[in-house]
Amino acid sequence: MPYAYKRYVMYIFATLIALTMPFITIDGNHFFLLNFDQKQLHLLFTKFDMQELYLMPFLLIMLFLGIFLTTVMGGRVFCGWACPQTIFRVVFRDLIETKILRLRRSIKNKQKEPDYSLTINKIKKAVAILIWTVLALIAASDFAWYFVPPETFFEYLKDPMEHTILFGFVGILTLFLVYDVIWLKENFCVYICPYSRVQSVLYDNETIMAIYDKTRGGEIYNSSKEKIANKQKELPAGSECTTCESCVTVCPTHIDIRKGLQLECINCLECVDACTTVMGKLNKPTLVNWSSVKEIDDKTGKTQYFRPKTIGYIAIMILMLFILIKMGSEKEHMLLNINKETRLYSIEENNRVTNSYIFLFQNTDHVDHEYYFKVDNESIKIKTPTQPFTIKAGHSLKKIVVLYTDEVLGIDDRKDITIPIHINAYATDSEEKIKVQREAIFVYPKTTSTIK
C-alpha cells in the first residue's frame, strides 16, 4: 500500500480525535482541557485546580521527551503524518483545489501553480478560499475548545459581544489559518517552524528518513550540493535513476531528495511513493527509501530502533508517566488556603485572646460535601464557625474563622508569642477520604499588653 494512503488514514484519525475529544466527558471532566475560565486542568477525565498545577511540568517534560524520541527515531515524521499544518495543506491543495474544483491537474505535481489568468480559475480560487475559511473557522474553534469547553463556548456564542477576547482570538486564528494555508503554504515549515532546526541536532545515522540510494541511482549532486546530472546519460554507467524527477515534482516543500538530508524534508514520503511507482514499471526496487544512513549510505547493517539513546528517552518518559499517574491518583478532593487577618490578635473580657483568619475552602470533588475542621492544640478553641457547612461540587467558599484561648500560653514582656498550630480540615461525610492539614500560627500577646 502506498504511503499516501496510510497518511490519509492517519490524517482522518488525527482529525476525528481532535474534533471529538473536547466533547467526550466523564462526570463533567474532559480528557484534556486547560480551562482558563475556571482556572482548572482536566487530564485523563480528572479535574485539577490551579493549586494542583504542579502536574504541568511533568506533562511538559513528557511532551519534549516525546518530541526528542520521535525525532531521533523517525525524523520529522510528525510533520508529515500528524502536523495540523500538513493536514490543512493536504485538505486545501489535494482535496479542495485538485479533487473538488479541478484547479490543479494532479496531486502528483505540486510545483506547478494553477493559471489564474483564466476567469474560471479566479472564480474557483474564490470558492476554494470560501470553503477553506469555513473549515479554518471550525479548526480555530476546535483549538479554543481545549481552553474553553464546548458547552461554555456555545453558551458564550449567544452573546459574543460579552466575550470579545475569546471570539476575537478565534477570528484572528481563523484569518491566520487562511493566510497560512493559502498564501504562506509550506514556507511555514521551511522558514518559521522551529522543529526543522531541532531535528538537525537530534538526527544520527540510524534516524529513519526519506533517503536516496546514490550507490544505485548515481550521484545527482556533488559534495557542494551542486547539480551535476540533469539527464540519465550524464550519470555514471550502471546508474539506475531515470532522472524523471517524479520525486521532485511531487514534493510539497519543493526539494530534491536526491540532494541528501535537508531541513525542509517533512518525511511525508511522497517521493518514496513516486519513485516506487516509476521503478516498479522497470521491475526494480525504489531508489528512495524510508530508511537510515546506516542502511543506505554506510551499508553497515540494519537500523537499531532501540539503541541507548532511544532507550534512555523511553525510560525517562515511563518514569515521568509513573510519577504523573502517582501524583494524579493522590489528588486532593478539598483545597484549603489559610490567611491571617491584618490584626494579630484581640483581647476580650476575662483575658480571652482571639485570632482571626480567612479560610478559603474549595470542593474539588464531583459531589457536594459538608466540611469542618479541628485545631491540634487543645488550649486553642474554635469560636466561629460553630457548625459544619456545605460546599457544592466544584465550588469554593470563604469563611472568617476566629480561634480563641482562655489559657495563658506563654509569658514574655518583650514581644508577642507566636505559637505554631495545625488545622485539620475534613469532610464530615467522608472524613477518611477527604481531609487536609495546613499549618498556621496563633499569636499570643506579650504581658505588657493591656489585659482587661
Provide structural commentary:
With 452 residues, this protein is α+β, with helices and mostly antiparallel strands. The chain folds into 3 domains: 3-200, no CATH class; 204-296, no CATH class; 334-444, Immunoglobulin-like (Sandwich). The chain has helices spanning 3-20, 56-74, 77-81, 84-100, 119-144, 150-156, 164-184, 187-192, 195-202, 214-217, 246-249, 270-281, 293-296, 308-329; strands spanning 25-26, 29-30, 32-35, 40-43, 46-49, 209-212, 288-291, 334-340, 346-347, 353-363, 369-375, 381-384, 389-391, 396-405, 417-427, 435-444. Strands 8, 9, 10, 12 and 14 form a 5-stranded antiparallel sheet that branches. Helix 2 (56-74) runs antiparallel to helix 14 and helix 5 crosses helix 7 (164-184). The chain is elongated and about 110 Å long.
Report the strand count. 16
- Contiguous runs where pLDDT drops below 50 for at least 5 residues: none
Strand content: 15-25%
Q: Compute the number of structural domains.
A: 3
Structural class by SSE content: alpha+beta
Largest sheet: 5 strands, antiparallel
- The SSE string, one letter per element, is HEEEEEHHHHHHHHEHHHEHHEEEEEEEEE
The helix fraction, in percent, is: 25-40%
Query: What's the rounded overall pLDDT mean?
Result: 87
Distance between the termini: 92 Å
Task: Tell me the number of helical segments per DSSP (H or I, 4 or more residues long).
Answer: 14
Tell me the radius of gyration: 32 Å
From the spread of the alpha carbons, the general shape counts as: elongated
